[in-house]
Amino acid sequence: MATTNDLKTGLVLKLEGGDLWSVVDFQHVKPGKGGAFVRTKLKNVLSGKVVDKTFNAGVKVEVANVDKREMQFSYLDGDDYVFMDTETYDMLNVPRATVGDAANYLLENTLATVAVNEGNVLYVELPAAVELLIAQTEPGLQGDRSTGGTKPATLETGAEIKVPLFITTGEKVKVDTRTGEYLGRA
């Protein structure tokens, strides 16, 4: 347990209903009249929903113990993604639903941050950008290069992204893992 005075960005709280909420932003407010309070912006760890919540100053809140470890994606086992702890070499099976959209940019030996709370995997977080090979894309036409248009391309992971017309099959490109946007050649 902690008080609202101990709140800081990144702290994970366990609020009513047992949901885990990460503190995105907080502000201690001491109005001229009345008691002090803490205005917070909280993000649900599982759903990503962001809400504003106000606590009275000094109120006790339950802090969740979230263990974030750097792990390496080893292989796909049925519907589970198997990650290996880079320090202890322990293997951890993570369900496809928990990996979510990160699966579109996940290759073997890719490093990722895996957050675990009480033995349950909360989420898998990839680096902001990854380098992937273009498995297949249509050739750009000679007159198209100056228009600045885009075309669909399939990555080596099977995900499809939009790339500029000058990109060809077999090139390595940088991709933003949060938005799926092309960032440039690798």
TrEMBL record:
One of its GO terms (molecular function) is translation elongation factor activity. PROSITE patterns: EFP. It comes from the Bacteria. Pathway: Protein biosynthesis; polypeptide chain elongation. Keywords: Cytoplasm, Elongation factor, Protein biosynthesis. Residues 130-185 form the Elongation factor P C-terminal domain. InterPro entries: Elong-fact-P_C, NA-bd_OB-fold, Rib_uL2_dom2, Transl_elong_fac_P/YeiP, Transl_elong_KOW-like, Transl_elong_P/YeiP_cen, Transl_elong_P/YeiP_CS, Transl_elongation_fac_P. The keyword Protein biosynthesis applies. Its main location: cytoplasm. It is found in: Cytoplasm. HAMAP family: EF_P (MF_00141). Involved in peptide bond synthesis. Stimulates efficient translation and peptide-bond synthesis on native or reconstituted 70S ribosomes in vitro. Probably functions indirectly by altering the affinity of the ribosome for aminoacyl-tRNA, thus increasing their reactivity as acceptors for peptidyl transferase. Belongs to the elongation factor P family. This is Elongation factor P. The gene is efp.
